[in-house]
Amino acid sequence: MGKCMIIGCGGVASVAIHKCCQNSEVFEGIMIASRTKSKCDALRDKLQPTTKTVIETAQVNADNVDELIELINAYEPDVVLNLALPYQDLTIMDACLATKTHYVDTANYEPLDTAKFEYKWQWAYREKFEKAGITALLGSGFDPGVTGVFSAYAMKHEFDEINYIDILDCNGGDHGYPFATNFNPEINIREVSAKGSYIENGEWVETEPMEIKRVYNFKGVGEKDMYLLHHEELESLALNIKGIKRIRFFMTFGQSYLTHLKCLENVGMTSIEPIMYEGKEIVPLQFLKAVLPDPASLGSRTVGKTNIGCIFRGKKDGKDKTYYLYNICDHQECYREVGSQAISYTTGVPAMIGAMMIMTGTWNKAGVYNIEEFDPDPFMQALNKWGLPWEEDFNPALVD
Ligand code: NDP
Question: Could you say which of 3, 55, 104, 306 would form a disulfide bridge with 44 (CB–CB 3.0 to 4.6 Å)?
Fold first, then answer.
């Protein structure tokens, strides 16, 4: 069917690449292009004997638009799947525009010096992508990603209007370390140490970090503490799902994680303000990343399950209705299949599916779109087929 260029070769990219290689009918060729080429080569050497997908590799600095353009022109992919870091979103979008190539990512752009997760920078590209006749699919991971597809599916099949959405992200996995992050530590810590927020009646309501706590009993995992966080899909879902009065995002954290985080915060290790150290400028959070376990190394040690999904409340045929859509994913099963834990798996699988939707023309409209703006049905089918089957509950416990 076509060729895909994957930028980045970390935890999420590794899963997406495994999945592309399982799906050779669509992904006839892939190019893995990242900062450290040796990681791309190692993955190619592991996977090429197992797949018909032809794998090529390249070194690229995705902060450099000209380098990206040169590489895209040489490989001529149908779509670029950005699985580097959110800092690279705009340079990669610029290169896609210059080469008229479709674009897919899993996280919204974030400037290095402010931990603010907003779509405004990427939404500003709408007209340019429309004019160029190409698609940018934003946020094709799990959250954002599957949570948006779940919302579009609920809206299409179960509701006339959705008034309340609670997105619940539960990781019941245990890696045995007192403190480690399940995906890129810098991105993860920036996210959880930021102020919390949710949208109520069209307005953002801000909270202190971890101020709002609830306890929820998750199927497949059990009872967990969860905390209200700001999360990027709140912004797009509040606009794209009609009738929303309130939308919130909760993530589970264990006590050990929170105690370590508080201590690191208190001593200044999570700061993104550069400081001088022995004549060299360093960013404390980037230094912390260097001493923490590499998320890619957690796979073999992590046991337990994740349960991520959305509880919807709204109206159908004039009556109140509640609906919960979620996926349960087992860390060790993921590790056996692709050598990664479930956090990378639950992001990498939808990333592959998003690229597939664009490559096959199943999703085909020019411009910049969040995932819930497309027909959810083919994506929902693909989730069942490619390793993230979903479950429904028409009478779930609610979050107060
Ligand atoms: P990793 O840090 O494991 O991987 C990032 C990769 O990008 C690395 O291979 C890194 O190269 C490469 N990279 C970084 N900077 C550049 C650059 N300038 N040029 C080229 N390559 C570069 O991160 P994850 O795999 O955990 O996360 C990937 C993305 O997925 C992030 O944007 C993250 O926010 C997002 N994500 C989304 C989720 C969702 O549900 N929507 C959930 C989890 C993550 P090197 O190997 O040299 O370090």
Answer: 55
